[in-house]
Amino acid sequence: MKHGRGSKGGARMRAYIYLRLSVDKEDGKAQSIDAQRTAIHDYARRNNIEIVEEFADTGLSGQSSKRPAFNRMIEQATDGTNPVDIVLIYRIARLARNMRVFFNSLDGLADAGVEVISITENFGESRRTKRMGQTISAMVAEQQAIDASIYTSKSRRENARQGFYNGGPVAFGYETYVARKDGDKERMKLRIVPAEAAVVDQIFNWADMGRGGRWIVSELNRRGTTLRGAKFSNGNLSGILRRVTYTGIYYDKTVDDDGNVPDPEDWIAVVCPAIIDQPRFDRVNALRASRNPRRTAPHIVAGTTMLTGIAKCGTAGCACAMTIRTGKGGRYSYYVCANRVNKGQSCPTPSMRREVLDDLVLDTVEKQLLAPERLQSLLADVLDLSDQKRVQREQELSHAKAEQTRLRTGIERLLILVETGQMGPRDPIFAKRMEENRSALAAATTRIDALETQLAQGSRKITPATISRFGDLLSARLRDEDPTLRKDYLRMLVSDVTVSNSQITISGPKAVLENGVCNGAPRLMGTVPIFDREWCPKADESDEYESPLLLP
């Protein structure tokens, strides 16, 4: 193609110019935007071409059609008003490095009477040879882009295997730094930003105590704490609480040579400084899963009514939940059997004033469950440090770790189904199984912590004074002025309150007490896992706790 034609029918030809700088050097020939612009303007001046407008994309690959300036240029050039006669580019590779994009754009421009001219490539004068030359050049450019992509992917995977950061958004609480230089290449790693890490740690502490997302967001914003200048919201808080990076490891998911996202077992684990320990991370996410509205009704999670969701009718053949009803224009609230509400007086279980039943349950838990003598009896298993008991605990620890591994594998397999498109994250089955696995994993992790602490005690025994202080601490938490926190702590200790016309029976998980007396005040775990041993006995379990309240 000769580059000397600058007029068409005696009129000066008009042109758009398109400039693009990719994210990489593209086979080592990185022409800057300024270099392309200078060369094209020189060409236009020599050939008497009027430049109407300039379009430039920076940092975008020619393999993609999602380039704002490129799409705007095509749209304007083909809108039917004939604004230009030609489009000037530095070389075909600047226009596209993908054959589909190349043909679509070239054909669209040709249909509008617009010619594409590469100022550095000569494709001849005839229409046939010009199109053939442009096509061959585009094919070569596409293959070069594919080769460069494969090389880049290999380099990124190797970079990750060596423990370096491949780029992308940096998690709040971290920053990147140059860990090593290989010539012009800077190898980056993550390190902790103390001020941000303190915020992350506080967020997880609040979540571990049972604080809800809205409360945490409100408190952070009230304090003026920001997320790198932005206000906290439910969305970015959820992202922080889900981010596994805070446990000291993240996974590089660079695509393979065919451009496919690898399966989870092929992800590359990269170690980084930890801000949150794994057990706390598991507990928080189990609690969040238990509060998911697909599993637990929102009014149970967010409400302050203490026994909603755990108070049940104890009449034989009923077993309905106790619901709240009001009287005297809303001045009084009552727990009422749902069957009694729906079917009249068919259930003999009486209604009970909310504050009366709440106080009865709180007083019973305080005076009977948390009394030092009762705690010593319930925690006899923890206090027994005999050789036989030690062997039993070691076996139980082994089983608990196997269960932990099984649950983590189950979670990973569920994520694989989402990653491969076989199941969607909003699928009810996926949500149910993920929540169950996360809750079970948190319970297994808590049990492991308790067993490991017990085995590590050695000759250091837990004294009656220790148990007494533990009971006092829990009593204080149950009398906290925050009704939401008070409710959450009670629900951690109590899983069922069964009300009949003659007595009230209270039961709950024993594992919380065992772990708490070994490691300090128990953290809120959300709903009680169904496989936990309980402190309210069944008929054949005399070593567990029973707290019946006889009603007049």
Describe, in plain words, how this protein is organized in 3D:
The chain is elongated, with a radius of gyration of 34 Å. The longest helix has 35 residues, at 127-161. It has helices at 33-46, 68-77, 92-95, 99-111, 127-161, 194-209, 213-223, 234-242, 278-290, 298-302, 338-343, 354-369, 372-378, 380-383, 387-419, 428-457, 464-478, 483-493, 510-519; strands spanning 7-8, 11-12, 14-21, 50-58, 86-89, 115-118, 174-182, 185-192, 249-252, 268-271, 311-313, 322-327, 332-337, 352-353, 496-499, 503-507, 547-550. The protein starts with 6 loop residues before the first strand and ends with a strand. A hairpin with a 3-residue loop joins β15 (496-499) and β16. It is α/β, with parallel strands linked by helices. It contains 19 helices and 17 strands. α16 (428-457) packs across α19. The relative contact order is 0.07.
